[in-house]
Amino acid sequence: MVFVYEYFITFVIAFIVTFSATPVAKKVAFKIGAVDVPKDERRMHKKPIARLGGAAIVSGFLVSIVFSGLGLSFDINDIFPYARQILGFSAGMLIIVAMGITDDIKPLKAKVKLACQIAAAIIVVASGTRINVVTNPFASDGITVLSPYISYPLTVFWIVGVANAMNLIDGLDGLAAGVASISSLSLFFVSLIWGRWEVAMVTAALAGASLGFLPHNFNPAKIFMGEVGAAFLGFTLAVISIPGTVKSYTAIAIAIPLLVLGLPIFDTLFAIIRRILNKKPIMQADKGHLHHRLIDMGLSQKQSVVIIYILSAVLGLCAIVLADRGALSAIILVISVSIFVIAGAKFMAEMDDKDESEAETDKTSSSVAIEHGLKKAENHK
Predict the structure, then answer these.
(1) What is the dihedral of CA 349, 352, 353, 357, to 10 degrees?
(2) Dmax of the chain from CA atoms?
(3) 97, 76, 77: which is closest to 25 by C-alpha?
(4) Phi, psi (deg, nearest 5) at residue 146
(5) Model confidence pLDDT, tens digit, residues 320-374
(6) What is the pLDDT of residues 152-176, one digit of tens each?
(7) Of 182, 252, 289, 308, which one is least surrounded by beta carbons within 10 A?
(8) Could you give the angle at the alpha carbon of 220 between the alpha carbons of 217 and 225, nearest 5°?
(9) 174 and 219 in contact (C-beta within 8 Å)?
(10) Nearest CA among 74, 51, 64, 85 for reference residue 15
(11) Burial (0-12, 13-18, 19+ Cβ within 10 Å), 303
């Protein structure tokens, strides 16, 4: 049994360590050349900014987890059945972190990164963490048990897909860190509802580490999390959200990860479809992601990030409501809140246009006044 205050301690330790380690990571990044230099129009920043912030996130997460495992009240017999899965996750995480740090220093080819992600996912699957069921509305219990031939590749696809999805949304200052924080907190509350303290402890540490990095990464960002941060957050969220890891297999348990991680997942799916329709390579970057579209609507970086935070929070809240009260309450919630979010986004865009228009009018009026004053002075002479 774990007391509530112990989750709070885990969260706070992760937050403090990450927040304190980020300036160190920034200094190290400039020394070893892990710097993001803007080279194309997709980049929102105009000057070189340090990467490697994800190393601070990993540090905060690991210190918090180790402290929780050594110092808080738990029975070793509670986690012994999960020892194999924990070792598999740790080994996979080691590969992801090593790949991320290397890529932040000297960019790796997409194929190399994909191979590392697949290797990490295979290790996790081999350790016993797998998607064994999927939702089936035609089955009596609402689920279908998968054969190993489907379960293994599906789990690998899920882990690699979520890891890349988190990387793809890391396009604005503070976006990936904020979405990861919201997703972690959502899974934390779901884990509490279902009584899974070990998953709740991991999500508390992950939320604390993500939020500890956010003050340094929010617009204007002083440092980026880089590949190591995005890949680590995506990999960890993917593993701990696998149906069955959170609770025994039910149709609702399968839907929870899709809601919690819904925003990066659907943004990635739309990106793949968009590139296929445009006959472009799937791995080729573009400016069609949700955050790019919000910027094109006239919203600022901060406004776009806040809108995505709200959308992610709505999906996370729906997952919590779904776990606690059922599907109908979750559907009503997402529909009603989405209406206000869409209306608010349009209002902010219109207000920005109005402010810009007024500023342009004032500028024009000032120019006319100055010109009129100069002519009057010349006539007086």
Answers:
(1) 170
(2) 96
(3) 97
(4) -95, 150
(5) 887 777 666 656 666 666 666 566 656 655 655 555 555 455 555 555 445 555 5
(6) 999 999 999 998 888 888 778 888 8
(7) 252
(8) 25
(9) yes
(10) 64
(11) buried
On whether residue 272 sits in a domain, the answer given is: no
Residue 350's CB: how many other CB atoms inside 10 A? 12
Give the model confidence (pLDDT) of 56-89 as tens digits.
999 999 999 988 876 655 555 555 556 788 899 9
Is residue 253 assigned to a domain?
yes
Q: How many domains does the chain have?
A: 1
Would you say 22 and 212 are in contact if contact means Cβ atoms under 8 Å apart? Answer: yes
- The span from the CA of 188 to the CA of 7, in Å, is 10
**What value does the CA radius of gyration of the chain take, rounded to a whole number of Å?**
23
| 3-state secondary structure (DSSP) of residue 3 | coil
Contact 345, 282 (CB under 8 A): no
The answer to whether residues 44 and 172 touch, using CB atoms and an 8 Å cutoff, is yes
Residue 43 counted as domain residue:
yes
Residue 218 Rama label (left phi>0; alpha psi -120 to 50; beta):
beta
Extract the runs of DSSP E, i.e. beta strands, from the chain: 35-36, 49-50, 133-135, 143-145
Residue-number span of the structural domain to which 64 is assigned: 4-262
Q: At what angle do helices 226-240 and 110-126 cross, to 10 degrees?
A: 30
Q: Are 88 and 262 in contact (CB under 8 A)?
A: no
Please name every residue paired with 36 in a beta bridge, in sequence order, or none if there are none.
49
- Whether the per-residue pLDDT at 269 is higher than 90: the answer is no
Q: Does 297 reside within a domain? A: no
Write the DSSP symbol of residue 147.
Answer: P
Q: How far apart are CA 51 and CA 35, in angstroms?
A: 5
State which amino acid sits at residue 274: R
Which pair of tokens denotes residue 153? 């590749």
